[in-house]
């Protein structure tokens, strides 16, 4: 059997709000609450389980999503429509820009809990600049 990531837990102040935020940007649906989790499933079968915790337990994490050019365009439009600040870099030093690393497009933005979200159209190291 090959090893695959099945799910991960993302701590949030409000699991429903955070799940719906990310699902909305990505054009996905937040699922029904299951126990303490609100799931968002990606197309490759990985589930992001959002769990409500106190604000002191939310430590900023980074989540990167590989998307098609079409999905990037649609998600980036939703980022702009939501009035989110976005960046070309993980250090958040280039606001209002996207990057073109490896010949693709990439963007960083923060979710309501300060988690760094990244959308890329080409995997790192896949070539092009």
From TrEMBL:
Residues 4-122 form the VOC domain. InterPro entries: Glyas_Bleomycin-R_OHBP_Dase, Glyas_Fos-R_dOase_dom, VOC_core. It holds the Pfam family Glyoxalase. It comes from the Bacteria. This is VOC family protein. It comes from Streptomyces fildesensis.
